[in-house]
Amino acid sequence: MAAKTAKQEDDPRRPPLADAQLQHLYRLMVKIRLFGERATILQRQGRIHSFLSCEGQEAAIIGSAHVLEDRDWIFPTYREYAIALLRGLSLKDLFDHLFANQADRIKGHNLPPQYAFRDRNLVSISAPVGSQFPQAVGAALAAKILKYDRVTVVYGGEGATSQGDFHVAMNFAGVWKVPVVFFIQNNGWAISVSARTQTASESFAVKAQAYGFDGEIVDGNDLLAVHEVTDRAVDKARRGAGPTLIEAQTYRLGPHSTSDDPRMYRDEAEVGAWRKRDPIVLLEQAMRERGCWPDEFAEKTREDARQEVQQAANQALAEPLPDVATLFEDVYHTMPWHLREQMEEFQRRASRSGS
Ligand SMILES: Cc1ncc(C[n+]2csc(CCOP(=O)(O)OP(=O)(O)O)c2C)c(N)n1
After folding, report:
1. Are residues 53 and 191 in the same domain?
2. In the chain, N or C: fewer CB atoms in 10 Å?
């Protein structure tokens, strides 16, 4: 099954990305790459609990989410933190969460990195792999019933497609034709399990056929291709024409997480081959071909991003930790008696110890 090849220029719905938009998206990709490098260093210094990088997947993430309107719902995984920047959040917001400091919107209630930006329709990340799929289909069904003009996009890795939740969600989405897009990043590896051993199907996209809707494969390292295919799927969902599964073929250049050493299970030559298809370099080539690559654009972008990342990290590091009493907040609308007892006991002990 091949990705459709319609040229964006022929598409009446949305004009092709303008030069300034491409420059903006290139800057975002560089910024998020440097953010990941900095977060990894901070984890090694013991300042962050753990981190999962999206290195190599920036085009798939940014190219797809850029298509969406702010009112649309997004159910991301731990790898799609770049989307926060598209929704008007800052690098400091991301660092605040990683440090679980006082400015963290969820005050460290989720184990970092499990970002949650409710006011931006970025739904809290679910730790159990695949559990986001039924949640997203439920949200999309609600939008359909309530006649909200909102599309839901749910992200997942190819490993997550082996979970039962994925199949339940796909079936439900197909039967009820809900306005949802399943965006699967096939990044080659689910920790140490290769994509080749994840399924006996010819692709991940082909699975959509069994559930009665379209599956499309796209080069996940080509931002323009990702943008085009996602735009078409989102438009279809918005028109009430049902769901789409997109398989973005990409590669996780880094480790699964800061706790992982991929040299234990994969060949460095494979990584080297994918480094040649770095999505940031591919976008640079596309922009040069189009003639929207100003002199010294790469150098200036990188230097600006480096400074921005450093400043955001320093500002987030300077934030105090949340008040311990916030441990008891934001779980129940009305605090149940047993939690109130624990809080009061805690406050008695804290006042006795003078803390
Ligand atoms: C139900 C469940 N099983 C196992 C895990 C441990 N785990 C966390 S991430 C992960 C791999 C997920 O791989 P994939 O879906 O391909 O996404 P990727 O990390 O490659 O982006 C696993 C097995 C988990 N969090 N939840």
Report:
1. yes
2. C
Single pTM value for the model: 0.94
pLDDT (tens digit per residue) in 85-97: 999 999 999 999 9
Ligand 1: residues with CB < 6 A are 79, 127-129, 156-160, 187, 189-191, 252, 256
Structural domain for 97, as ranges = 8-321
| Residue 13 identity (one-letter amino acid) | R
d(CA 252, ligand 1 centre) in Å: 13
Q: Are residues 199 and 264 in the same domain?
A: yes
Say yes or no: 31 and 174 in one domain. yes
343 and 199 fall within a common domain: no
Q: Does residue 343 sit in the same domain as residue 278? A: no
Q: Whose CA is nearest to atom 7 of ligand 1?
A: 129
**Judging by DSSP bridges, how do beta strands 214-219 and 193-194 pair with one another?**
unpaired
Does residue 17 lie within any of the structural domains? Answer: yes
CA of 62 to the centre of ligand 1 (A): 21
How many CB atoms are located within 10 Å of the residue 335 CB? 14
- N-to-C CA span, the chain: 63
Q: What is the pLDDT of residue 350?
A: 83
Domain check: are 197 and 80 in the same one? yes
Distance, CA of 245 to CA of 233 (rounded, Å) = 8
